[in-house]
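FIELD: query
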Amino acid sequence: MLARDYIMRLLNDFNENLELLLSRKKKEDDPELEVALQSLYNTYFNHLPKYYYNEDGENILNDLMNKYEGTEILTRIEMLAELLYQDALCKQSEEQKNLLSKSLYLLEYLDKNSGTFSIQRRDRIDEIKKRVSF
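FIELD: result
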């Protein structure tokens, strides 16, 4: 019960912070937005953004699986997939495709291994595939 409460608080906190940043993105072209978005990597995943930019999806997934246990793994994967996706939307061309590919890798892992069906996840997977032209 405590673990589930912790995971729910973690996910709610992450979503609130991400939503706050995204609302700033919609309102104005804020140069500090990217810095704030990148700070979420360290806050929630204990790595600088450069780690996620340079590692491939498989290594990122293995890192998460080594750090977290139980249902927290799936929650962290979902959080990171969303963060990579939102970060990618702030980038251009190849850098964007790189981050979208990693988000796609994590989402496809969740789709196969979470034990739950999500229309939202399937729609995001389809959207990313179109963006990166797989």
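FIELD: remark
The two ends are 41 Å apart (CA to CA).
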